[in-house]
Amino acid sequence: GHTDATGEDAANLKLSDDRAQAVRKALVDLGVPADAIQAVGYGETKLIEGYDPSHGVNRRVEVVVVN
Description:
Layout: H1 9-29
């Protein structure tokens, strides 16, 4: 989970973790084994290259599949 740079760092870290946990829960509810999913919140620490705060594009959740 990621956030933009708006607001306090600690609040953004929690928000990004909440986003990641929500996606994890949705996947588990769909039948993906809970122990196969790791949810991590990064806050505003990993901004998209060329990030423009007026577009809000850093507010995202990324899913990485490792086989």
